[in-house]
Design a protein that fits this description.
13% of the residues are buried. The chain is mainly beta. 11% of the residues lie in helices and 40% in strands. It contains one helix and five strands; from the N terminus they run H-E-E-E-E-E.
């Protein structure tokens, strides 16, 4: 088991991505590379992270939910995708769950997440 974790750590280090510390409840802005014909541009996707799966390993992913034109839209991003240009934490949310799937049924004030004002970055 330790050998598998070591190989995964080497693969993540080889990618060289700088991924900020974020969790479910945080509002994040993901810069995603979009290819249209021969041109490539970065399109930002901003919303609430409602889940993180498989940790920060090579198979990690996270789901971002936003409201677009009155309709809820969710998108799952692989954490170490080559199509992700950058990930930026816009605001930290104070939540008591690791999966916020209940936000799918909420609208308006009941769907709000309180901002965490006393956040400290974990020591590396």
């Amino acid at each position: 088991m330790d050998l598998i974790a070591q190989i995964e750590a080497e693969q993540v280090a080889a990618l060289g991505n700088n991924i900020p510390d974020f969790k479910a409840g945080d509002t994040i802005r993901v810069g995603f590379k979009v290819t249209e014909g021969t041109r490539t541009r970065v399109q930002n996707y901003e919303g609430v992270c409602i889940s993180r799966k498989h940790g920060s390993g090579i198979a990690g992913s996270f789901t971002v939910r936003k409201i677009s034109f009155g309709e809820g839209v969710e998108r799952v991003f692989p954490l170490h995708s080559t199509n992700i240009d950058n990930i930026e934490v816009v605001r930290r949310g104070r939540v008591r769950r690791s999966k916020l799937y209940y936000l799918r049924t909420r609208r308006g004030k009941s769907a709000r997440i309180v901002e965490q004002t006393n956040y400290r970055a974990p020591k590396a």
